[in-house]
């Protein structure tokens, strides 16, 4: 009987642990999904930035227009830098180093951070795409 | 009866296996192409000009300058990555190691991995990354350059075939592709670098390319 309860306790601990790991892995994979999506967005960002760059190199007639373009480009650069900083700081290996609570805390925090990069990028890319398509009309 | 059937089946299998083995496979040529008509020995001949990789200049993990000319006469594989990439790059480069091990002693073969985060991935960072992978010598280069230059050459050249094939819009540079370039700097294949099966396919295709007779080396 005693043996049985021991086995029960052991298996309980075991499932608890594997549940913890599962939760951690899910969080990580969520973050990585956003990251991969943003890397795709980064391509659109670079494309728009280069297009704006070449427009800015043209001799300007309208300085207000140029200021506007520069403002749009600045937003792209800011979003790009935010993404770069996140990429360089994010440590996926935390999962192997810290306690469960620490890992969850870290990933939750990182998820928030990458979501704010996501919105920065979306705004900057959408705005610049809109501007560029209005120029090409 | 059953035995005969099995033997018969095995024979057919063997025959088809041998047949496909002896068939000379040629790889398609991707990218834009245009026909040109020229006069050779008084006769009009129509030839096809295929898209080739244009001149470029980057720096490798040793700080050496690498240009399109450095790769003259080489078959090479290209990919795009960055050293802090947490998702697909470690898988891609684990698969690329197999390619490296297979061809590191064959000559006229290179692997170039372009970083898409050049601000962080400086020459020393790339060297450290190469060391960690166990890469030495001059077969596999990790290249750094202007981000604009990397994105332009990726989009306009290396990944054109991927874009033609794919129904997905946007985001190819971080999609894990390996692109195979022949000695004439033409695009001969694109593979999902995260899929070991496709990487094996690429290894077979590189061998096919190596067996291709050297035509004129362009540029």
Radius of gyration of chain A: 23 Å
- Overall pLDDT level of chain A: 89
How large is the count of helical segments of chain B?
6
Q: Describe the biggest sheet of chain A?
A: none
Please state the oligomeric state of the protein chains shown. Answer: heterodimer
Structural class of chain B: alpha/beta
CATH architectural designation of chain B: 3-Layer(aba) Sandwich
Task: Report what the structure shows.
The complex is a heterodimer of chains A (137) and B (219). Chain A is mostly helical. Chain A has one domain. Chain A is built from 4 helices and no strands. Chain A has helices spanning 2-57, 63-89, 94-97, 100-136. In chain A, α1 packs antiparallel against α2. The termini of chain A are far apart. The mean pLDDT of chain A is 89. Chain B has a single domain (53-211), classed as Glutaredoxin, CATH 3.40.30. Helices cover 37% and strands 23% of the residues of chain B. Chain B has helices spanning 2-22, 89-103, 123-133, 147-158, 160-165, 196-211; strands at residues 33-40, 43-50, 57-59, 65-67, 75-81, 109-115, 140-143, 177-181, 187-192. In chain B, the strands form 3 sheets. In chain B, strands 7-6-5-8-9 form a 5-stranded mixed beta sheet, with helices on both faces. A two-stranded antiparallel sheet of chain B has the order 1-2. In chain B, strands 3-4 form a two-stranded antiparallel sheet. In chain B, α2 (89-103) packs parallel to α6. The interface between A and B is medium-sized, with 20 and 21 residues.
């Amino acid at each position: 009987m005693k043996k049985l309860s021991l086995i029960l306790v052991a298996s309980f601990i075991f499932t608890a642990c594997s549940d913890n790991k599962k939760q951690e892995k899910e969080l990580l994979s969520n973050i990585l999904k956003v990251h991969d999506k943003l890397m795709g967005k980064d391509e659109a960002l670079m494309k728009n930035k280069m297009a704006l760059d070449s427009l800015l190199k043209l001799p300007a007639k309208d300085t207000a227009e140029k200021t506007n373009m520069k403002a749009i480009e600045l937003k792209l650069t800011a979003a790009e830098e935010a993404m770069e900083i996140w990429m360089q700081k994010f440590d996926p290996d935390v999962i192997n180093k810290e306690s469960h609570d620490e890992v969850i805390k870290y990933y939750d925090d990182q998820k928030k951070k990458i979501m704010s990069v996501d919105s920065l990028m979306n705004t900057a890319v959408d705005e610049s795409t809109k501007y560029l398509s209005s120029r090409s009309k | 009866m059953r035995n005969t059937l099995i033997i018969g089946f095995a024979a057919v299998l063997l025959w088809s296996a041998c047949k496909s083995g002896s068939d000379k496979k040629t790889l398609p040529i991707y990218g834009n192409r245009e026909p040109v008509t020229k006069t050779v020995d008084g006769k009009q001949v129509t030839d096809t000009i295929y898209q080739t990789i244009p001149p470029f200049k980057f720096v490798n993990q040793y700080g050496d300058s690498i240009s399109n000319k450095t790769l003259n006469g080489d078959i090479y594989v290209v990919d795009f990555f960055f050293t802090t990439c947490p998702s697909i790059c470690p898988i891609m480069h684990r698969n690329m190691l197999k390619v490296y091990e297979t061809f590191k002693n064959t000559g006229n073969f290179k692997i170039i991995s372009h970083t898409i985060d050049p601000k962080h991935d400086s020459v020393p960072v790339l060297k450290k990354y190469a060391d960690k992978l166990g890469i030495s010598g001059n077969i596999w280069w990790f290249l750094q350059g202007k981000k604009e230059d990397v994105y332009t050459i990726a989009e306009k050249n290396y990944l054109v075939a991927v874009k033609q094939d794919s129904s997905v819009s946007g985001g190819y540079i971080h999609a894990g592709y390996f692109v195979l370039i022949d000695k004439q700097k033409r695009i001969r294949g694109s593979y999902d670098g995260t899929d070991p099966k496709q990487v094996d396919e690429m290894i077979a295709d590189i061998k096919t390319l190596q067996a291709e007779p050297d035509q004129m080396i362009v540029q």
